[in-house]
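From the methods appendix. Each design record in this collection lists the tokenized structure first, followed by the designed amino acid sequence. Records were kept in a plain field format so they could be parsed without special tools. The example shown here is representative of the layout used throughout.

RECORD:
FOLD TOKENS (438 positions):
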């Protein structure tokens, strides 16, 4: 398929080097199983689940059938003061997968919206509770919680926000969640730095002023940064002691990516107050996000709101019928194929395979947790991000899709890939890295 110069110029592509792409476009026209197919017929192994979201691989007939059936019966239904069965059924199924104590699900259209919703719920909850001074939010450096103003404000990836000068100001950031040691397999050993940093923020700001802390179990978009094994539980304990809500952003790490439907409790032993999810929830087919809250939070809105509507927030397409049907098909497929825990089954093979790349020229670290991996590279002098971008492009031309985050190459394969697929993607990545640093 050939696009005209006018067509190529018309779309302002997100998070992209638009000038460079338009000079040499790479187009995807189809997908099947673990592969994308380009406009010139080449097969490209999907090593990043599209954009962290196609955990079941591509073109799953079960999901397609569910969407088709939904669209033929109910193309759209408003969610303000009305509802449709699929949204209620999906909410109930998600709660059965969540930790005990979670009582409600608020649907959104993306991870960005799910995180902004979580922040608004936390801030409003404290106001309804009479804790009117709790307006401060705590995020983490290199954290990513979406592109909305709330998520942008508590996120810590510099380029995302450096030119947005009027974002939320009542915010503090925890330090970078990475170990000083390199080439660690899995989570680094216990480290008190994150807990100490949070206690320092509490001392500076005042625990009575902090509404919520929001963190990812693994900072994926920040470069697959794996916090130490005790970090999340330490943060949970401090939040509980100070009346602070804990929001765990599982937009990427849920739906089996770390070996559980939701990793916070099953992998880290932590029950937060709010959980966000999106991306793999519909296998990337139709936008859908969700913010899960503990029952006591929702009850506070019902009991203490002084208006007819208990929460003035929502989205036109929240709980879209086709999106909910897609998510229901995803959950059923994952249960039937035992994919929620497959990352655990693959863990030893995955770890051994990716760490075999240690020693390649220019490779300064390898990080992994669950079915994720990050490969950190020596940057090009005075050109941060260029090294990984060049490797991303060359990998694609060689038949592998990876993700470039700064000067880190990330891998996040579909949960049902074969051992041969794993070997293929690492062979391509190894060859491209060697060529780049030759």
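DESIGN:
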């Amino acid at each position: 398929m050939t696009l005209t110069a006018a067509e190529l110029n018309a779309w302002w592509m997100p998070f992209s080097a638009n000038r460079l792409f338009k000079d040499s476009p790479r187009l995807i026209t189809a997908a099947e199983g673990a592969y994308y197919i380009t406009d010139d017929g080449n097969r490209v192994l999907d090593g990043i689940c599209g954009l962290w979201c196609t955990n079941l691989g591509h073109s799953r007939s079960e999901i397609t059938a569910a969407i088709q059936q939904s669209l033929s019966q109910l193309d759209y239904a408003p969610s303000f003061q009305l509802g449709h069965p699929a949204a209620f059924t999906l909410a109930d199924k998600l709660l059965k997968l969540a930790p005990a104590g979670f009582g409600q699900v608020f649907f959104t259209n993306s991870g960005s919206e799910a995180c902004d919703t979580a922040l608004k719920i936390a801030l409003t909850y404290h106001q309804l509770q009479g804790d009117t001074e709790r307006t401060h939010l705590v995020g983490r450096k290199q954290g990513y919680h979406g592109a909305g103003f709330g998520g942008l404000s508590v996120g810590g990836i510099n380029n995302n926000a450096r030119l947005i000068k009027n974002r939320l100001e009542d915010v503090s950031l925890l330090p970078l969640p990475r170990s000083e040691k390199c080439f660690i397999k899995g989570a680094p050993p216990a480290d008190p730095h994150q807990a100490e940093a949070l206690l320092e923020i509490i001392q500076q700001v005042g625990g009575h002023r902090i509404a919520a802390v929001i963190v990812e179990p693994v900072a994926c978009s920040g470069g697959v940064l794996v916090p130490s094994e005790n970090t999340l539980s330490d943060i949970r304990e401090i939040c509980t002691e100070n009346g602070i809500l804990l929001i765990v952003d599982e937009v990427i790490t849920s739906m089996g990516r770390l070996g559980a439907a939701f990793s916070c409790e099953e992998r880290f032993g932590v029950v937060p107050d709010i959980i966000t999810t999106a991306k793999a929830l519909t296998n990337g087919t139709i936008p859908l996000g969700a913010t899960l809250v503990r029952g006591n939070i929702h009850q506070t809105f019902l009991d203490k709101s002084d208006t007819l509507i208990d929460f003035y927030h929502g989205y036109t397409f929240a709980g879209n019928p086709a999106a909910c049907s897609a998510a229901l098909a995803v959950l059923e497929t994952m249960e039937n194929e035992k994919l929620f825990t497959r990352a655990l089954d693959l863990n030893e093979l995955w770890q051994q395979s990716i760490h075999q790349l240690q020693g390649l020229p220019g490779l300064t670290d390898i990080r992994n947790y669950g079915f994720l991996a990050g490969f950190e590279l020596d940057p090009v002098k005075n050109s941060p991000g260029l090294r990984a971008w060049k490797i991303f492009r060359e990998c694609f031309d060689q038949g592998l899709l990876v993700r470039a985050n700064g000067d880190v190459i990330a891998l996040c394969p579909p949960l049902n890939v074969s051992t041969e697929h794993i070997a293929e993607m690492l062979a391509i990545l190894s060859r491209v890295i060697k060529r780049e640093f030759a």
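APPENDIX NOTE: The first strand starts at residue 28 and ends at 32.
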